[in-house]
Every structure is written in structure tokens, then in C-alpha cells.
Amino acid sequence: MERELVELSKRAHEDPNAVALVLFGSAASGSAHEESDLDVWYVLRDQPLPPRERRGRLEIVPTTVELLRTAPDWLKPALAYARTLWDETGEVESVLEGARTISHDETAELYDGYLNDFYRSLKTWRTGNELAGRIECGCSLRFLGELLFALEGVRAPYPKEWAGKLGELEPLILEVARTGEPRLQQELCVQVCERAAQRGYSHVYDDWTGDIDRVLGFEFPDPTSDTNGEPAPPTPI
């Protein structure tokens, strides 16, 4: 354990109001580098809480078990990939374990969110609104990444941790992220919907009552061809 964490652990054990220490962020998830902070929840029995404290690499964030238990959705990935350094009662580890699991309803909501932004992207691409098409495509990919983890029964980490963890769809997802190209979005959506159906989420697709089928049927020009269907000439440098 890093020297700073050893010293903080000693301090916490001597603090009668402290009940746990929890490492979160990149140091807990395994993606830390030499400039990464050591983010720690300093869990106290009672409020009011003291202010955050910075000690070199240490970022100490006071909190309580109840605040962790009722954390907003945007904080759940941090909880899910956090690591307890000390937990006097075991309550904190129970909270973290709960954050690591994702429910059937949450997974369905992620799938619906992906389909919604995919639908909006293709609709706007079709009307020639490239800016909106690209923006909606980007929004869809956040839902999609979280959905792919959820379909495997785990909560997704933050996107910076996704590289190399999205399976066989990752190269296509990266290309869609680069280009926003609607034909690639359609190709990706077909594969995602097949995977979701295999996991028992066909009802989410069906609730769109044909709208997704309709946008999957939209025809878009091949961006690698000119207007006559011939390959486009290379762009001058």
C-alpha cells in the first residue's frame, strides 16, 4: 500500500468518528499513472462533514455510509469499482457490492436510451443535419457502452476504462465514434439488438412499434463513393 494511504489509515483508526476508508477513481480501478491522485472516501459516523482535504497526491473526501448508500446514479461507477481499505462494520462493502450489480430494469433503460439516440441520429442524418446526426450518435454510444457491460451483468465503469473491454463490437464502435456514419450506425445497431434479444430484452425493441425497423431501412449514400456510385477520388493533401 502507498505510504500516503498507510498514514491515512493510521489516522482513521485513531479517529473515533471514522468507520471506513475507501479508495476510488483510477487508483482503485487499475488505470492509474504516475500523475494520478489517490482519491479516498473518509467515511464518518456523523455529520456535519469537514471540507475536502488535499495532501500531496491524496484527495480526501469526507462522507458517511448513508451518503454512499444514497449516491446519485452518476457516482455509481465510482462506487462499483472502488476498493475498501478499512471497513469497521462491513456496511461500506455492502454498499459497494450493491453498486456493482445492475438490475434488469436499469439494463432495459440503457437499451432504450441507446435506441432513442440512434433513432434521433438517423432521422437527422436523413434530413441532412450532419451536426445533429453526429451529436446524437455520440450520445447513443455512451448508452451503448454501459449497455454492453450491463448485458454481462455488471455496471460499466466510466468510459476512460472501456478500451479493450467492449468485446468483438469494439472496432465497429470506435469507427462509429470516429465518423458518426449512419450506415455504420445501422450495422452496429443490428448486432446490438441481436445481442440484447439473446439476453431477454426483445420487449424494449418491440416497444418501439416498428420505428427502429423503419430507420434501419433508411438508405444513405456510401461516403466512399461519388454520386455515380464510383469510388470517390482521394482527397488532395
Question: Secondary-structure blueprint of this entry?
Answer:
Blueprint: H1 3-14, E1 18-24, H2 26-29, E2 38-44, E3 53-55, E4 58-64, H3 65-69, H4 76-80, E5 83-87, H5 91-100, H6 104-126, H7 130-150, H8 170-179, H9 182-198, H10 202-206, H11 211-216
Parallel strand pairs: 2-4
Antiparallel strand pairs: 1-2, 1-5, 3-4
Helix pairs in contact: 6-7, 6-9, 7-8, 8-9
Describe the overall structure.
By secondary structure, this protein is an alpha+beta fold. It folds into two domains: 3-100, 2-Layer Sandwich (Beta Polymerase, domain 2); 104-216. It contains eleven helices and five strands. The protein has helices at 3-14, 26-29, 65-69, 76-80, 91-100, 104-126, 130-150, 170-179, 182-198, 202-206, 211-216; strands at residues 18-24, 38-44, 53-55, 58-64, 83-87. The protein has a five-stranded mixed β-sheet with strand order 3-4-2-1-5, with helices on both faces. A hairpin with a 2-residue loop joins strand 3 (53-55) and strand 4 (58-64). The longest helix has 23 residues, at 104-126. Mean pLDDT is 92; it is low at 231-237.
Name the features:
disordered C terminus, elongated, Beta Polymerase, domain 2, alpha+beta, 237 residues, five-stranded mixed β-sheet, 2 domains
